[in-house]
Amino acid sequence: MIKLFKLFKTKRSPMGISQIFLLAIVGSMFAFSSCKDDYHYDDEEPGWLGESIYDELESRDSFSVYLKMINDLGYTNVMQKTGSKTLLVASDAAFDRFFKDNEWGVSSYEDLKEGQKKLIFKYCMINNAYLIETLANFNDGELQKGTAMRRATGLEVTDTINFEDGSTFPESEWWDSHRSTGMYLVRDETNKPLVYFLQSALDNADITNNDFKFISGEEREDGDAYFFSDKVIERDITCKNGYVHVLKDVLIPPKNMAEYLESDDDVSIFSKLLERFSAPYYEKKLTTSYKEKYVDFQDSIFSKHYFSNYGAQSQYPETHENAEDLLDYDPGWNSYNVEGSGLQYDMAAMFVPTNEAMLKYLTEGSGKVLADRYGDWNGVPDEHVADFINHHLRASLLLSVPSKFDKMIDNGSHEMNVTEEDIVEPYVAVNGVVYKTNKAYPPYSYIAVTGPVSFGENTKVFDWAVEKNEFDLYLESEESQYSFFVPSDDYFEGYIEPVSYTRSVAELGKPGALKFWYDDDDKTVKATVYDYTGGTIGDSIGLIDNYKFLKNRLEDLLDAHIVVGGVETGDEEYFFTKGGSVIKVTNGGEGLNTKILGGGNLDRGETVNVLEVYNQMALGGNGYTYVIDKPIQAPLKSVYSVLSTTPQFSSFYNLCIGFQNNGVSAIFKNGKKVDCEVFVRKNNYYGVDYNVKFFNNYNYTVYVPKNDAVEQAISDGLIHSWDEINSASISGQDSIDAIYNLIRFIRYHFQDNSVYAGMTVDANYQTATAKTSDTTTILYTYKNKYFKLGVDASGGNITLTMDKAKYYSETTKDEIPYGNEIKATVQKDDGLYNIMARDYVFNKNPRSTTIGNIDDSENSTFTSTEIYSSSTAVIHQIDKVLTFE
Fold it and tell me: How many CA atoms lie within 13 A of 867 on its CB side?
């Protein structure tokens, strides 16, 4: 009894409650045997308990090969007298079939090497006692029932160490130092787990019998148990020291996913790409333990790992510790587990194109662009290879079985579009299922508008900008269509730097033009600064390599080079960019004939030309990518700058600037404060000169009446000039009323939303003047809402309808329609229309920065400035003033 109790205590396993209770009863029977001389089990054990594992197998006539293996490996005592084991065994008939056909090429038991015997025996031994159904349970702090599909085995890592000569090592620098000498290598230093498919786990994971058949090739019925594709033909043989389950065939340890790819010539192209991300790592602990076990061993042991974001080894060796080209997970990691769950619960999956599929991909679709750029798969850089491989890796097998193929999405929430017909052959590895496929599944980024930029030899600057500003998440959306304009690196010059331009406006320094270029050695973008005095690019005056500065300016450029919805219709000329500015596009949809102009390009009298067009829509992507010969330059002039320097706008400008010149920032009307500023320049709101106070990071239209129209409005008493307001004739409340009426009059000329002559628009838009009465107006503006303007743009003209009060006949009470007095039109005779402006907001006052030694970019106050935000506007001259109510 003492021995039995000690065995139970020291060999305790995570058995079910019923098993522990059962052994406890047996123990109690022996414990009290001295008290009851006639007790039935004093001299014999319960018949249902069975023999030891060894004796049970020996008592049968069909396991002689397995028993011989147990004896040869020195496990006789363990299987006969001690231990708490689960053993998966194969009959002599199964071994007969095995010796006729196996991957090792052995034809008899005598041909088996000791290491091979260990693989067969120890891999099929679990160091605890489990019934078949209790194998589906595991404990990760609390008992998880019916969810396990993998479990560690008795096979030790030291049983899998082999010496490999360098002829089979991957063709990469990480393996070169060992190529001539070879090494002792394990494919992973973690245990190779068993994979099994039990009813409760399949039910809980919603894996069907058809899924299992597709994966394993075996028909199963409800209740069947399989280890890999090997069926359990006799289960739950109860022995004194554990359980025996009989398998139909001999089970040798399958490979992990990466090993399998190495061994299959049909997927050698994909496997070779995968091997770029592998390296040998010295295993100090394993080497030490192996030397203790085999004292004559004096070498070193290495393990093979894949550089990944998740796995046993996530970093490149030595000097490449911060490399960014990583796989999503290590496909050679035996103990792979889905993050946040135990090894038992799930494993991975891979979709691996055959060589034929890989080569076919390079001849069509997005793959052809890849081939045009890099030639063949050997020429594709690691960064693109990593993206390609990762799109074929799946973190969870439970979400990647055939019945769930149609629901699979990638990390960017794009559909994978895998079908059962795509699968050539599946393989169940120890850490996942490999699906060999007859097609490739490239990342959506390959067919999105970012694809040509990523692959382009002359688009490295924008590729860097997209990555660093994380625009790839935006530009790879399937929900939108884009026109993406990308300056060629060969012509990426002439970007007028807004802060230096601001300093030149204030006559504090030279304006600077930047040429962005990609430094292949440092793998980053830099910018050379050129003197732009007089509007001509002159000598270089410095170099900028400040990351934050470059990232900020290129983000601003990206915003000006993306049009949501596309420009390919050919029906319109003006399009909003992502940043809110507007570009003029002629010959839209005509490919190389397309011409583009931003506000800055218009000011400089230059046209942006198209060098190449990539129709990503034809590949199933989300738009068109245009490689262009210069950057699209957003407007540099502010609304203030345009109004203050255009003589034909002087009367309206004088009304606007009068609040500032007369120190009137606010008044009180009916007990409420009324903000009266039009233009401002203040802390944390710095612009090129002055910004419109009521702009708020949006796009606007400013309607400027002709000078004589403004003067006529003053003459008619509709508004008062500043001379009148400041004269002795107006004072007290009259002065307040005059100012109040004037600011409301001015703000009614500022409209939300930019509308250009050349657009087709028929809509009502808000102005910046709020309605304060209950009077019913033509456009039905509610009280305390902003007055509207009716805008009809067609045929290149714009007609405005003012939000006047409705009036009625005193006799009939019918509404009397207005005549032309409610209409205003945009004037095009003098070309004072479609004038683009932009109010920048910088994080610092540009006037207080000093460019200084531009090379000292870390300490230069100039390179610490950022474009914080901006508002854009289009300015039109109109024939009359706009009034309301």
Answer: 27
pLDDT, residue 134, reads: 94
| Cβ atoms < 10 Å from Cβ of 657 | 17
- Here the contacts of 866-869 (C-beta below 8 Å, separation 24 or greater) are 866/548, 866/549, 866/552, 866/842, 867/498, 867/552, 867/553, 867/555, 867/556, 867/840, 867/841, 867/842, 868/841, 868/842, 868/843, 869/697, 869/841
CA 109 – CA 273 distance, rounded (Å): 39
Tell me which DSSP letter residue 415 carries.
B
List, for residues 642-700, the tens digit of each pLDDT value. Answer: 999 999 999 999 999 999 999 999 999 988 999 999 999 877 778 999 999 999 999 99
Distance CA 876, CA 265 (A): 69
Task: List the strands of the sheet with 162-164, edge to edge.
Answer: 162-164, 183-186, 301-306, 278-282
Rg over CA atoms, the chain: 39
Q: Whose structure tokens read 């009851």?
A: 36
306 falls in which pLDDT band (50, 70, 90)?
very high
What is the Cα–Cα distance from 869 to 46, expressed in whole angstroms? 84
Question: How far apart are alpha carbons 258 and 305 in whole angstroms?
Answer: 10
Residue 349 corresponds to which tokens in the numbers above?
């999956």
Q: Coil, strand or helix: which one is 273?
A: helix
Element (H, E) at 261: helix 257-263
Hey, what amino acid is at 739?
A: I
Measured between alpha carbons, how far is 623 from 453 in angstroms, rounded to an integer? 13
Residue 3 has pLDDT above 80, yes or no: no
Q: How far apart are CA 786 and CA 788, in angstroms?
A: 6
Is 880's pLDDT higher than 50? yes
Distance, CA of 680 to CA of 865 (rounded, Å): 20
Residue 369 and residue 455 in contact, taking contact as beta carbons nearer than 8 Å: yes
Contacts of 618 by beta carbon, 8 Å cutoff, 6+ apart = none
DSSP codes of every residue in 152-202: --S--GGGG-EEE-GGGS-SSHHHHTTTTT-EEEES-SS---EEEE-HHHH
- Distance CA(726)–CA(742), nearest Å, equals 13
Identify the pLDDT of residue 850: 65
What amino acid is encoded at 296 in this protein? D
What span, in angstroms and rounded, lies between the C-alpha atoms of 730 and 713? 17
DSSP 349: E
Place of tokens 């290879």: 385
Phi and psi (nearest 5°) for 60? -100, 160
CA angle 152/154/155 to nearest 5° reads 95
429 bridge partner residues:
none
- Who contacts 29 (Cβ-Cβ below 8 Å, separation ≥6)? 39, 41
What's the predicted TM-score (pTM) here? Answer: 0.82
Residue among 429, 406, 264, 407 at smallest CA distance from 330:
429
CB 193 within 8 A of CB 136: no
Please give the structure tokens belonging to residue 684: 């944390």
Distance between CA atoms of residues 322 and 800, nearest Å? 59
Whole-angstrom CA distances from 702 to 693, 838, 873 are 13, 12, 7
Helix (H) or strand (E) holding 653: helix 650-661
CB 245 within 8 A of CB 235: yes
Cβ neighbours around 332 below 10 Å, total: 27
Residue 67: is its pLDDT beyond 80?
A: yes
E strands, 289-345, are 301-306
- In the chain, the largest separation of any two C-alpha atoms, in whole Å, equals 130
- Distance, in Å, from the CA atom of 621 to the CA atom of 625, rounded to the nearest integer, reads 11
d(CA 238, CA 341): 31
Between strands 595-597 and 608-615, the pairing is antiparallel
> To the nearest whole number, what is the mean pLDDT of the chain?
89
Instruction: Quote the tokens at residue 258.
Output: 């990466």
d(C-alpha 142, C-alpha 494), whole Å: 65
Is the CB of residue 315 less than 8 Å from the CB of residue 380?
Answer: no
